[in-house]
């Protein structure tokens, strides 16, 4: 079984389903940790409906969809913050496929997309409870830095210089 990764419109059926899975998981993890409950379904629908994909649309962004054995399996987004800096967004692999090498491939594909857009540095933010994500970024050469944004749920910020 092999992975393939390619840009895809953010409103494609595969991207939409993966976004829903991503948001459900990270939201449920947050609420279970902090409030002992899962995400309210109405809140989930409001947040999905309010999401704009403009930031992940060419020429200043991209949404990458990973497939495993041809089936949608994960996503990563990249957007330019300025001509030299790109931001990594929404790295996600569906739970049954974790540990099969998809996340590092997605991050590397996002780094290549950022370089193609002219960026020489990638930044990202994540939460403290997303320990797997923080370990992945560290393994891939990202260094924890000072905050580069004021995202309300961000607790850790990372950066990596992109080599050409």
TrEMBL record:
Keywords: Acyltransferase, Transferase
All copies of domain N-acetyltransferase, residue ranges: 16-163
Gene3D superfamilies to which the protein is assigned, alphabetical: 3.40.630.30
Superkingdom per UniProt: Bacteria
Pfam families, A to Z: Acetyltransf_1 (PF00583)
Designated name of the protein: GNAT family N-acetyltransferase
